[in-house]
């Protein structure tokens, strides 16, 4: 079941030229019943719920995948018999798929409605690789690049939302006019940080019907 897109009263859609999308629970459906901890436990971890203090380092590109795996193996007590492939599958179990029509709508916004569309997502190399496999399987593309004007992952730019530096990085890189740019994100903290940087922003989730954006541009 979809929910209507609720636009702020002070948002003039006709002024919007750029849209920045979050991925998780906005464009990408998540497995709500899946977690890395549960998957690690299934693989024999003795302390699957251990606090992982280096996730932020991994998601900002300051830790490579092998170093991250080794740190998590040590913290959670994963058996040495668990392969890297098994580890990566467990770590990325939360990613499900793109709901039918979601990426097609992005293409419509980019093509028919004339928006420039971007992604800004907190991610890491393991999650991004899994996402690319989903795209390849269901959309016959190797990444999100063909669907968007540009894609920004935290592990590539070195900043995590809701750090304002993440939004400023995108604004500066693309030379965006913040007031002409709309962020669509499911996190209130991210919305607040984006508006502090001058961006327009609206909170949405995977159930939000985004078709209003294309209709609004055409009206």
Automatic annotation (TrEMBL):
> Signal peptide: which range, if any?
none
Taxonomy, superkingdom: Eukaryota
Q: Name one Pfam family in it.
A: Hydrolase
- State what protein this is by name: Uncharacterized protein
């Amino acid at each position: 079941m979809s929910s209507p897109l609720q636009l702020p009263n002070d948002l003039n859609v006709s002024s919007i030229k750029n849209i920045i999308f979050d991925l998780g629970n906005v464009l990408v459906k998540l497995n709500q019943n899946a977690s890395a901890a549960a998957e690690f436990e299934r693989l024999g971890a003795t302390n699957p719920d251990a606090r992982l203090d280096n996730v932020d380092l991994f998601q900002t590109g300051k830790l490579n995948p092998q170093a991250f795996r080794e740190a998590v193996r040590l913290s959670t007590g994963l058996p040495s018999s668990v392969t890297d492939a098994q580890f990566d599958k467990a770590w990325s179990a939360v990613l499900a798929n793109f709901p039918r029509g979601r990426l097609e709508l992005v293409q419509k916004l980019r093509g028919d409605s004339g928006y420039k569309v971007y992604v800004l997502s907190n991610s890491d190399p393991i999650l991004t690789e899994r996402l690319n496999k989903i795209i390849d399987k269901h959309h016959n593309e190797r990444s999100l690049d063909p669907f968007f004007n540009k894609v920004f992952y935290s592990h590539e730019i070195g900043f995590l939302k809701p750090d304002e530096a993440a939004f400023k990085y995108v604004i500066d890189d693309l030379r965006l006019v913040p007031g002409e740019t709309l962020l669509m994100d499911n996190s209130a903290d991210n919305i607040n940080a984006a508006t502090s940087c001058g961006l327009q922003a609206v909170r949405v989730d995977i159930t939000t019907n985004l078709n209003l954006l294309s209709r609004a541009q055409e009206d």
